[in-house]
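Most newcomers find our protein records easier to grasp once they have seen one. To make this concrete, we reproduce a full record directly below:

…
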Amino acid sequence: MRENSFAHFFEIVKAVRKGCPWDKEQTPLSLRTTFFEETCEAIDAITQEDSAHVKEELGDVLLNVVLIAYLFEEKGLFTVDETIKAITEKLIRRHPHVFAQSEGKSQVTESVAGNPEKVLNQWERIKENVEGRKSESVLDSIPENFPPILKAFKMAKKASKAGFDWNSISEVKLKFCEELAEMHDAFIDVQQLHNYDGLHPLSVIPKTEEEKKAQDHLEEEYGDALMCFINYARWLGIDPSIALQKGMKKFESRFRFVEENMKNSNIDMDHKNHMDMMEFWNKAKQMQ
């Protein structure tokens, strides 16, 4: 039944590609944005635990996967069938603890039963020693186009696996405090150059080489602090991307509450009415 369902689906994809003016114009490169957006929508649906929505969005992701693969098939580079065959073989190869016929069985050095960490280590050995995917750096496998927070988190995890890590969470916290202090020192230099009063967000267009150097240094130190804070999340057992999504969702809910109540109270959303806005903000907090 599933094979027939996919075969029918694939025929529909090919028909759409052939008969729809929009689909006719698409290339693998042009579909990158659509693919990314559909994946994000699927992630949102999963986060919301809305099964009906998840089903729909996963279908959209599948459509993009199959369509992109088919575009390569049209060019004679590889087929959709070869794509499916490749991932099937990879699953078997990288799961020697599941499939007795796996090519990766030579990398089984210990039992991985009930130990996901050992499974991941075995996975990496198979990639390097069986598939020949050794790299100059453990960071080479991280996609260049990952969202920055996800990429930073992956970099921290990869470096840790290579043995480059702090000895304790207290060291991580201390390092973060050090980075914040360095960022503040860099900010003081910018503040003095522009006589910044701290009463509004700093907006600087450097006009001199000294100003540009100071602004670049501040940005660099902020990046160091942010990278350290993302690494701190790893030590806390938190995925920073998911944590940020929750924080944004909370902010959005509270801010919308402020907007609605300011409007109902006939009070303008303006800085001069800051106290009114904060009153509604605190009410929103109490309601959550």
Observations:
- The two ends are 46 Å apart (CA to CA).
